[in-house]
TrEMBL record:
It comes from the Bacteria. Residues 416-495 form the AMP-binding enzyme C-terminal domain. GO terms for biological process: secondary metabolite biosynthetic process. This is AMP-binding protein. SUPFAM superfamilies: Acetyl-CoA synthetase-like (SSF56801). GO terms for molecular function: acid-thiol ligase activity. It comes from Thalassomonas actiniarum. Residues 16-364 form the AMP-dependent synthetase/ligase domain. PANTHER family: ACETYL-COA SYNTHETASE, ANTHRANILATE--COA LIGASE. Keywords: Ligase, Membrane, Transmembrane, Transmembrane helix.
């Protein structure tokens, strides 16, 4: 799959060349409907011809407010085919968010699904698309001459936008070669896609993690991807798995709970590999996975939109429970701490910085964020890690998620959540700081139970007891309030949106000594 030595327009490398080699193989599966490599290439060419007719020139940006669909794939490669720059956006993009992206990137055109709520946009043409159609445009452009515009590997290909959980979303530019670097470092040696693989991925294609794992990497390897347009609830995931059993599952730890309930004889009985990222995988959940799916490796890893894909990962041959693995080839990682940002020793907590072949050089037209987060090629993540003597990395939470409670004690909510996850029937938990009646910040847990489980006093008491016993010597870590919820707030990329559950800032707390 490694094509980094001859990098060119990604549309050629990932799609058009592959369509020549394996025209009739299935590339995409959408609600049971199969699209061959040739058909996907033809649809992308149709989008390219329409973009040319609309006057889109090389280098210009085109917003894609489209769900995971044949339309998204056709538009993504069609935009790059004409030398323009794709700007994928999360499904359900709001008017305000769309205008922010357009203002940031100076998009000349916005392609939106007919189901979109977008209205007229300032300084940008808006075109609604039937994303399910194989022929979404008038046939008078179908026979127009078309040739893919030459691009080098270092030319700009697309701009991804962060989920913006702590402020306005930032544009993260990536080159045509970046996902090829990710394939060389991650897809080839870790996931090892095979031509007969079928990939089911929970994150949406507008998220860099899925853009690689569920589109470009499978195309490069000749395998097939399942695309899901609606919100990927467990019911939706199981429906799609029954239509076409996946061999590779890519999601988040919360997705595993219901998969374990369905068991090894359920719709995921063909799995050979499962991958999670985006949230911390509790050791308890990982152990349950090994018991129910003993022959299916469960790989946890870490990546960012700035890197475009995972760059720290466990592998089938080298993993350690509780860790996110080791840095992959082509990437450098360091843990820094203190005002002087000095390297920490093994076992000590530090903030993760990284650099590597696929990493963005800047935030799009945002010199302030670039100066704050990117220095000499190193990207500052805000995530806290420890590294053990064997070189494995362990996530300890985010700098801005640490809580100061009680008598000024610092609490890492992930450590408390890991204990809560040991309680049977708990699907997910989020621990935040919450003021009590005296204004003192104490720990509050939001609990999402396994589907079909009714909240009871027994479960509540078991959670309180489990946490208090685990932190017998540190009462500041004890849960004081519990609230059972039917859902948890998430960013557009599916990550927990802790800020929406927090009721205080680090400057608004009281002590009780």
């Amino acid at each position: 799959m490694n094509k980094t030595q001859s990098a060119k327009n990604l549309a050629i490398t990932a799609l058009f060349e592959q369509a020549k080699r394996q025209a009739d193989r299935t590339a995409l599966l959408i609600d049971g409907q199969a699209f061959s490599y040739r058909e996907v290439a033809d649809i992308a060419a149709g989008y390219a011809r329409q973009l040319i007719a609309l006057g889109i020139n090389p280098g210009e940006r085109v917003l894609m407010a489209m769900p995971d669909s044949i339309g998204f794939v056709g538009a993504f490669f069609g935009i790059m085919s004409v030398g323009a720059v794709a700007v994928p956006a999360a499904p359900g993009l709001s008017q305000q968010a769309a205008q922010h992206i357009i203002d940031k990137t100076d998009c000349k055109l916005a392609l939106a699904a007919t189901s979109s709520s977008l209205e007229a946009l300032e300084n940008c043409q808006l075109l609604f698309i039937d994303c399910q159609s194989r022929v979404p445009f008038p046939r008078d452009t179908a026979d127009a001459p078309f040739e893919v515009v030459e691009r080098s590997g270092d030319d700009l290909a697309y701009i991804l936008f962060s989920s913006g959980s702590t402020g306005p979303a930032k544009g993260i530019p990536h080159r045509h070669i970046d996902l090829l670097h990710c394939a060389k470092a991650y897809a080839d040696p870790v996931l090892k896609y095979q031509s007969d693989d079928v990939v089911l991925c929970v994150p949406k294609l507008s998220f860099g993690y899925a853009l690689g794992c569920n589109l470009v990497f499978p195309l490069l390897s000749g395998s097939a991807s399942i695309l899901i347009e609606p919100v990927p609830t467990q019911e939706v995931l199981e429906h799609n798995a029954r239509l076409q059993p996946p061999t590779i599952f890519i999601g988040q730890p919360r997705n595993l709970v219901a998969m374990l309930e369905s068991g090894p004889d359920g719709p995921f009985n063909k799995l050979r590999l499962a991958v999670v990222a985006g949230e911390k995988l509790s050791p308890t959940l990982a152990q349950r996975w090994q018991e129910v799916f003993p022959g299916v490796p469960l790989l946890d890893g870490y990546g960012t939109t700035e890197a475009n894909a995972i760059f720290i990962s466990n592998t089938p041959d080298a993993s350690k429970p509780g860790s996110l693995g080791k840095p992959l080839a082509g990437y450098e990682v360091q843990l820094l701490s203190g005002p002087e940002m000095t390297p920490v020793k093994d076992g000590e907590t530090g903030e993760l910085w990284f650099k590597g072949d696929s990493v963005c050089r800047e935030y799009w037209q945002d010199p302030v964020a670039t100066a704050e987060r990117i220095r000499d090629g190193w990207v500052r993540t805000g995530d806290l890690f420890t590294r053990d003597q064997d070189g494995y990395y362990f996530l300890q939470g985010r700098r801005d998620d640490l809580l100061k409670v009680g008598c000024g004690d610092w609490v890492n909510p992930l450590s408390v959540e890991a204990e809560i996850q040991k309680v049977d029937k708990v699907a997910e938990s989020v621990v935040v700081g919450h003021p009590d009646s005296d204004g003192v910040i104490q720990l509050k847990a939001f609990i999402l139970l396994v589907e079909g489980t009714r909240p009871t006093r027994r479960i509540r008491d078991e959670i309180l007891t489990t946490v208090s016993q685990a932190f017998e010597q540190t009462p500041s870590h004890h849960i004081k309030q519990i609230e059972f919820v039917s859902s948890l707030p998430r960013t557009s990329t599916g990550k927990l949106h802790r800020q929406k559950l927090k009721s205080h800032t680090q400057l608004e707390f009281a002590y009780q000594c």
